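Practice problem: predict the structure.
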Amino acid sequence: MERESIAPDDLLTVIKTRLQSGQPPDVFNYGTGPGFAGVLEDAGLLRPLEKSYKENGWEIYDWAKQQVTYDGTVYGVPDLLQEIIVYYNKDLVPEAPKTVDELREIAKDLEGQGKIPFAFGDSEQWPAGHLFSMGASNLLGKEGLDDILNGDGRWDVPEVEKAIDLMFRDFVESGYYPEGVNAITYDDANSLFYAGKAGMLPTGTWLISSILETVQDFEVGFFPFPSIDGSDIAPAAGTGTGLFVAKDAKNPEGAITFIDYLLQDETARMLTEELLVIPAHPFDQEGLDVPGLFRGVLEEMSKATQAGALGYNIDVLTPQSFNEVMWTGFQEVLNGTRSPGEQAGALQDAWAKAKKQGKPAA
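Answer:
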């Protein structure tokens, strides 16, 4: 077996060409959802995997499996789950907030200490989608988002406008983000937290390894984004990436054997301990040797998954055309050139257009 490593940002630009080259990779790791692997399926570049699921008895969580299902057919195997949470510096934030009002008190105290409340930068545009996912998940809940994504629900509703207003107008005007937030990169925002210059960091569970490697001077905790004016808390979650088999794979049987190996219980435990990732399928977690921060995230996400209490990381579920409107529009709200109401309307227009074109959510 030959393994090739490509940086994630580079993979986005080269994978389609590689799959059409006549020498495609047999199996590859890529983003799930209509806006990512769904684009490859549209181009006829993926091999259906429904038969492999049945023959091998793969037990992927249903909600995760939906995110690699396009036009009613399963094309991928989610290989890790991710939750969007808020990390915090325990030296600066003594206790995790349960409500946004408590969060405001923490932010006010941090400002009084000369600290930035939230380490957030949106130069790449996609980080704002994660903040929106947290707010919309809490205000709409899983059922409300399901109604939009899979039913007749709309984006131009008060709950969506409120989420946009809170994250991209209110928090900006309150001074909770660094100056020039639209010019700050994701990595630079993370560095503000690592250096103790910011008290909280809203991002995903994929960053745990980097936090544990980099932060040495303080203890890090985490919390799901708190209740907004009495809302439930529905942590935004999704499948980060998945495994896919090229339609023109030279050795599709070998690709399936490799995927099956990765889904074995012993392999899942090894990957969890070594890479600090959360598998997208049930596995034996007893006695795992993992750091406390990761164990807390793993336990919290497992409970929320079993209870059906998770929200959604929205850009994993929505098509590329919608995501582009979402990301560019949030930057405009952040810089004050677009209102939250206008952005909610733009999201609905983009969604209606995508549905008309037959590009619904996963």
